[in-house]
Amino acid sequence: MPSSANSVIVLDFETTGLSPNMGDRAIEIGAVKLIDGQVIDTFQQLMNPGFRVSSFIESYTGISNNMLRSAPSCAEVMSEFATFIGDSNMVAHNASFDKRFLDAELDLLGLKYSGQFACSMLIARRLYQEAPTHKLGDLIRYKHIEHDGVFHRALADSEMTAKLWMVILEELSRRGISNPEFTFMQKLSKTSKNALDSLISKHVKLTNK
């Protein structure tokens, strides 16, 4: 059975830097589990990368070395998170970044997942072409989505991304596509901006046959 775009896990990592290939590690994971568009569970955990993080990362994320000192190891947290994911599809804002870290952390443990990724940032770029930027915080303000002002903490960012994701699905519903499949969202994220309207009208025709 095709999986619906409104039953996903929305996740966000805070990390020691930009690239696991350069030795960077995850220091916090936050995730929201949506089933039929409702939040049914969340996951949030700091994790100790085994080395000190830079003062830039401390001030950017608000996660201090002191906080990480007593946190469980990446291995402990990520094996728990793999269970939380199960076989769900996943959404992240700038998903290539989060997927890179998820893959790297799970590879170290010899763990795999069967779900796929969709990127809310790429989709927002297509649907909200007139937005000032497509950074998460700017889109939240642009779409007047309620938030508590906390940014760059994993659970807060994944909760906001989940709200943005539901706003995106509402937008598609207004355009005649209600409850799209996850694969349609992936397709949408790869469609050129100019081809967006024709993709949507073609999909509406197909589903209304």
From TrEMBL:
<comment type="subunit">
    <text>DNA polymerase III contains a core (composed of alpha, epsilon and theta chains) that associates with a tau subunit. This core dimerizes to form the POLIII' complex. PolIII' associates with the gamma complex (composed of gamma, delta, delta', psi and chi chains) and with the beta chain to form the complete DNA polymerase III complex.</text>
</comment>
<keyword id="KW-0378">Hydrolase</keyword>
<dbReference type="GO" id="GO:0003887">
    <property type="term" value="F:DNA-directed DNA polymerase activity"/>
</dbReference>
<dbReference type="GO" id="GO:0045004">
    <property type="term" value="P:DNA replication proofreading"/>
</dbReference>
<dbReference type="GO" id="GO:0008408">
    <property type="term" value="F:3'-5' exonuclease activity"/>
</dbReference>
<dbReference type="InterPro" id="IPR036397">
    <property type="entry name" value="RNaseH_sf"/>
</dbReference>
<dbReference type="Pfam" id="PF00929">
    <property type="entry name" value="RNase_T"/>
</dbReference>
<dbReference type="GO" id="GO:0005829">
    <property type="term" value="C:cytosol"/>
</dbReference>
<dbReference type="InterPro" id="IPR013520">
    <property type="entry name" value="Ribonucl_H"/>
</dbReference>
<dbReference type="GO" id="GO:0003677">
    <property type="term" value="F:DNA binding"/>
</dbReference>
<feature type="domain" description="Exonuclease">
    <location>
        <begin position="7"/>
        <end position="174"/>
    </location>
</feature>
<dbReference type="InterPro" id="IPR012337">
    <property type="entry name" value="RNaseH-like_sf"/>
</dbReference>
<keyword id="KW-0540">Nuclease</keyword>
<dbReference type="InterPro" id="IPR006054">
    <property type="entry name" value="DnaQ"/>
</dbReference>
<keyword id="KW-0269">Exonuclease</keyword>
<protein>
    <recommendedName>
        <fullName>DNA-directed DNA polymerase</fullName>
        <ecNumber>2.7.7.7</ecNumber>
    </recommendedName>
</protein>
<comment type="function">
    <text>DNA polymerase III is a complex, multichain enzyme responsible for most of the replicative synthesis in bacteria. The epsilon subunit contain the editing function and is a proofreading 3'-5' exonuclease.</text>
</comment>
